[in-house]
Structure formats: structure tokens, C-alpha cells
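Same chain as my last thread, 940 residues:
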Amino acid sequence: MNPLKALFPEQGQAVWLDFVARGFVAQGKLKALVDEDGLRGVTSNPSIFEKAIGGSSEYDDALKSVMDQGDARVIDLYEGCAVADIQAAADVLRPVYDGSDGADGYVSLEVSPYLALDTEETLAEARRLHKMVARDNLMVKVPATREGIPAIQALTADGISINVTLLFSVGTYEAVARAFIAGLEAFAAKGGDVSKVASVASFFISRIDVAVDKALDEAGGFDDLKGKVAIANAKLAYQRYRAIHAEPQWQALARKGAKAQRLLWASTGVKNKAYSDVLYVEELIGPDTVNTMPPATMDAFRDHGTVKAGIESDVAGAQAVMARLAEAGINIETVSDTLVDEGVQLFIDAADKLLGAVATKRIDFLGPKLDAQTLVLGDSLGAVAKKAVEEWRASGKIRRLWAHDKTVWSGADEDRWLGWLRIVEDELEHVADYEAFAEDVRAGGFSDVVVLGMGGSSLGPEVLAETYGSHEGFPQLRILDSTDPDQVRETEAAISLPTTLFIVASKSGSTLEPNVFRDYFLGRMKETVGADKAGAHFVAVTDPGSAMEKAAQADNFRKIFYGVPQIGGRYSVLSAFGLVPAAASGIDVKAFLDTARIMVRSCGPAVPPAQNPGVLLGTAMGAAALNAGRDKVTIIASPGIDTFGAWAEQLIAESTGKEGKGLIPIDGEPVDVPAVYGRDRFFVYLRLDGRADPHQDEAVRNLEREGHPVAHITLANAEQLPQEFFRFEIATAVAGAMLGINPFDQPDVEASKIETKKLFDAAEKSGALPGETPLFADETIALYADAANAGALPQATQGLEGAIAAHLARAKDGDYVALLAYVARNPGHHAILQEARVALRDKRRLATCLEFGPRFLHSTGQAYKGGPDTGVFLQITADPSADLAIPGRSLGFGTVVAAQARGDFAVLAERRRRALRVHIKGGQVEAGLKRIAAAIRAAL
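reply #2:
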């Protein structure tokens, strides 16, 4: 009989294998070990599965078969492989289990090492795995951490067999043994059959010698202890095992048929080549023990091992070794604590590598279904970003983010604003509601559907309207997010009220703009179709209990959809705020959510940062801003998806621009040669296959050649754009964490709202906004500024051209210039200001922003006021061609937009920003804009 096979019949020690792999089981090699070597069990851990799955292609067919049926989460792909392997191995070992009356024949599967410091999560995971594997001869592995030991007791009380791992000290072993006994007693008290429960306590060997030998080298003079401490420690643990099982408490359980929790010698492969390769087998042979060996150690012992009792030999010598270790100043309990921490981290590192390998395979199998991402960062920034990615991995931040851990950010109330993480899965459960709504809209014969909202409530739907276009049988989707009277009139002129459906979107229900939009169009609808039918032309999207909900109920709106209070507006596009307009315009909501879910899963908690596209983009943006001064995130997008930039602009600016920090997004600048850019840019290029602009392609290649960092994102088709909503949400949250701010509040937006409300309320009482004294005025233009800005611009008293030249001269390298136009947003106005903007960029190499008010107040306005003080702001206001009355209010839209502009400027001034306001008089907006644009060009 070979030595390996002789261990059990001659010495009562069971041999288990510390290895499992699909081919190994499928090819009959495991069964051969059972038949030929008397193998009696199998253990596994993340390191074993990482080598098996990540280090070979033998799992590819299984993974691909799952992916061919659709998509799956990375954790589910891994667990599918692991559970199948465990089940197959358990089936091979079932005869051993039956033949030993449940003493042996077990296969072990470890709970996620990420949960090692969480008792409740460990309990839930262990119970789930036990149910999932569904084999009597499964042992669930739980680490002997302080948090793990209570879980061991509770699981044993459930009648679940446990393999306790990461044991290094005798004291911890005793705590584990007593937890097992207490658990068995509890199980028996519930009427459980204790004979059906088994357990092993995995006592690690070689790692102790590695750690202690190093400490002995540092201590000096104790070389005689090298290679002896691990075995001595194990021998004393075995003595403690015998003492515990001689106690009356255990004997009472034994009389009921309970099986002792055997000591299992783990980590028995020798790390020091100076030691015998069978040292940790021969010295630890003894009855009622288990030795789980890696394949190499098993081969070695089979070849030249000696079967003889060792565990109870020279116990006095073992005690002497441990006493001398103490003399060397080495505390074995301290060593043990360190090894437990290191062991957990090693398993986490292995799990990260394992899940990273699965994530990479998933990406390969998805192919073009997943929007691809490539980061071209250069050596210096690339190294910094790589370090940030590793820090996110080592600290488990992506898992903590998904677990709503507010300490990922500032530790304020971030945990209250993370409903967007799981909204796609939640909304998929309500697809039928959106489909029913879509059919109701189609059957209603509406020609237009108009979203009345601001910020996150309007920018997402605007992307959908421009990207997806019209669908046969469904109304055209339009957006109104300006209180400019001319813009409101333009919107009304483009539609037929009797065949129009309005979606009033406001989370809080108290935002000024959606309320005045509702008041105006509800009043007009009542005039057109009658008061009793007007409500059927309105749908509300709002949070539960809001003022908007009450108003919608009072006016008999056609439908009320509810948002999620734990989702801020800028993160709401994948919730009802985006899905209601999508459904109303004929977009397939299920397909929309399904494609978004691909990115959700790609950015999930089980996807390590190095394979997580959202983390990679976020850390790159954060590193660029913090370490390279590249805080101007410049968005380039192919035709067909180019409106995405306005949505991303809001997300990035409102989330990160605060406390004097932040990323400044730049949208709408046409890409050009590298010479027109400063060294403060970070480019993001969203490229749409089949519709890519060759000029953009060439320009981006040139930017890369000149050393500008570029994030490339490639979409196979426009219908995959929902993936980008989630990628950018994760990336922005990650960048916010790197900046050390709360990416879910907007304090300076609120300041503007308060100032605007104060002005408007006062105007409603007095009949007009308070008068102002211009710095300069002529027939068509007036200039305004607060005292500090006026003092810095004495030229403003001389006229427009001198004022603008002096104002633009205030911008330094690394600054940006923002044109903030409170006028109707239409192609003509945009073209006039865009030409001036581009000229400014090209001549001064400054980042430029072109924004239309008041919509930017709920977007980039946060960064302009709360972000870094690098902005120079030219606010443009205008008298409307004619005001537009709002039913039920004493003042019209002209007063609303004027109050918003003044409130905006007041907060800019209060924040000591460089700002100048140019007001166009007499309603001649186009002529005024041309004059302003000419002054900008002249200043250059």
C-alpha cells in the first residue's frame, strides 16, 4: 500500500486534496485519487479557482454558453462555474461520504473573502451557497476572524457543515471549537440530528514558519527554532483538541452521535526549499485529523513519505519550542493576528484576480454588444491613474460604493443618494407599466409629447429625442427647459395643443420652472379643450408626496409616475424621469434597459477596478485633474449621439464642482488641431461606428500624438447609448471620491434657486423687479456688474468693446471662459455665439463654455459657482420681444427669466467670480448677440 493510501487505515488521518478544476474532475483524475490513494475530501479557495478559471481556457465553453443566452453578472458567471465544479467533485466523493457515515467525503466551498469582516453578510452568503450547491457532502468555508466565529456558531446551529479556515493560533482554535460545540447544542435543542453535522478546523502550517523564520532572523540568536514553530504550534493545538473533547460538555453531544470537529492541517506545502518536502505531513500524522495537501505535496508523500504517528510525539519538546519563541520576543498570538489579516487579504487579492479574469472573458464574449473603452493617457498620467486603480482595488472601494458606504466620499449623506445603482434592475420589473403607458399614448393619437422640466429632468430626455428620433405611430418628443418667453412661444407654435401630451417632470415638485410651465400650458389647454379635458393631456413624473403629485391629482392628470427619492435629478435618466418620455415616444423600454444593464453589470461590485470601465474612466479623470492640472473634461461625440455631451456636462459639473474643486466639462466645442488647446484638457471621444466623422478621427489622433490624454469610447450603434449613462454615472461618482467631495449634493444650485425665488416673490408683490443702475448703456446694450467686478473693470464705463476686452483679459492660462446666454436657444443664436466662442479658444487656447439660461443653472451652474475659481463669465440677458403671461400669476415669463439671471449673477458675485453682464435692450436679440460676438472677436 502506498504511503498516501496507508495514512487513514494505519493512522486514522484522512487525506484531502487542496485542489479542484473542471477537467481534473471530468477526466476521472479525482476519482482515480479516491480509488488509488484513498482520498477522502477536497478543499477549494479563491486562489485555486483563480488558477483554474483564469489560467486556462477550459471554462470558456461553459462561460460562452451562458453568455450566448444573454448577459450575466460576473459574480454569477464565476459562481456558475465554481458551483458546478463543487457539485461534480461532491458527486465523485459521495461514496466516501456514505461509507464513512458522513465523517469524510466532503468538498469545501469558501464564502466570499470580501465578507470576512461582516458576520451577517457571512451568514447570508454561507446559507445561500449551501442551498445553491445542494449537496449533503458540502462544507462551507468560513474564516476564523472575530466576525467569522459568531457566524460559525450560528451556521452550525442551522445544521450546516463548516470548514473553518485561517486558523493560526491555539487560542483562536479553542474559540472556534467552543463555537462549534455551542452551535451543535443549539441545533440539538431545536430537534436537529447532530450526527448529520461535520466540521473541520483548518490550522495553517507553512505560513507560520515563513512568518516566524523571518522574525527570528530579525531577532538573531534563535536559528535553532527555524522550521520548528509551525509543527510545535500544531502539536499543542492537537493537545487542546483532545482536552476539549474530553470535557463533559462534548461527551454529552458525543452520546447523541455528534462528530468531533477535526483539526485539518492546511498550507502543508513547504515554502522553504531547505526543508523536507513532506515535513508538514510526516510530523503531523495522528488519529482524527485531516491533512489537505496540494497536488505536489501529495505526489511527494506518495513517492517517499513515511507513515508513522507524529502529532503526539515529543509534546514536551513542542512546549519548549514555544517557550523559547517567547524568549525571542515573538508573540505567537500577534503573529497569528497578522497572518489572519494577511490571509484574508491574500484571498481577496486572489478573488480580485479571479473575478478580473472572468470579467475579461465576459468582455470578450460580449464583443460589440458592450461599448468599448480605451484610455490613452501617456506614461506619466497613466502611471498615476494605474496607482489610483490599484488603491481602489486594495481598499475595496467599488464594493463599498455599491454597499452604500458614505466613507468612500466625504462621509456626509452620500449613502442616501445611491438609488441609481440598482434602478435598472428595479425598472426592468416595471416594464409592463411603461409598455401599457406607451400603448395608451399611441392609442390616444397624440402628435407631440413635450417634457416640461429642468436639469436632469430635461437633459436626459433631450438626448433620447435627438438620438432615437421619431417612431411611427408615436408622437414626436420635444423638450422645454427655458423660461425665455420667446422660447416658450416657439415651443407652443410648433405643436397643436389638442393633440399634445405634456410630461411635467419635477422631483421635488417645488422647482420654479416646471411649475410655471405647468401653469401656462395647463391654462392654455383649458382654454383650448375645456377644463374638464385638460388634465388628460398631462402626465406628472415626481417623487412621492411632492407638491407636484398633489397638483396633478387636483387637476386630474392622465397619469402620475413616481421617481425614487434616493436618486438625485442628474442621476435619474434611467428611472421614470427618462423612461416615461422614452415610452411616450415609442422607444422600446425593455431593450433600452437591457442594453443599460450590460454596462451596469460591467461596472458592478464584483468587477475589479482594472476591468471596471466606470472606475477606469473615473480614476483617469480624477488623476488627470489632481495630478496633471487637466480638469477640463472635453467631450467629443460623433454625429447622431452628439447631444449626449450636454447630459454628461450636467452630471460632471453639478456632481464635482464644489468646495473650490471640480472637473469643468466642455461640451460643444468642435474638435480642432492641438495648437488651439492648452495643457488643461482631458478628452473623451464617443465614437459611433458607421457614423464616425473622419475629421474627428484625425483630430483625435493628432491630440494623442501631442500627448493629450484621450478616453476612447466606441458604440456599435446609437441604441447602445444607455450604457453610457451608467458608465458616466459611475465614473463621476469615482472622480468625486478622488476629489474628496460629495458628488450628490448641489449647494450652489440651491443658492441660486433661493436668490431667484427671493427676487421673483418680491417682484410679484411689487409688480416688477427692483431697478438697476448700469455701468454703461447705449441704445441697444447695457452693462452691469457687482461692485467688486465693476472696480476691476473701469473700462466698462466706456462701452461694450472696451469692457469685453478688459474682461476677457482677466482670463489666464488654465482658466476657462463661459458665455451664459439667457436668450432663446435656437440654431441662429447658437451659431452667432459659437463662432465667437471658437475664435476665443483658437486665439487664447482657453477652454470655452457656451450655455443657455436658465437651463444651465441646474447643470454647469454648480461648478461655475462652487468649483475652482478659474472661470471668467460673460452673462448675456435680453429684453424679450414681448412678455408672455402665466395664468394665475401676476407676472410673466419675462420676469421669471430676468429673476433667474439676476439670481445667478448675484451668487457668482457672492462667490467672488469674475463676471460681467451684458443686457440686450429692446428685444432685438439677434442683433445684440452679433454685436457682442463682434466685440469678443475684436478683443482677440
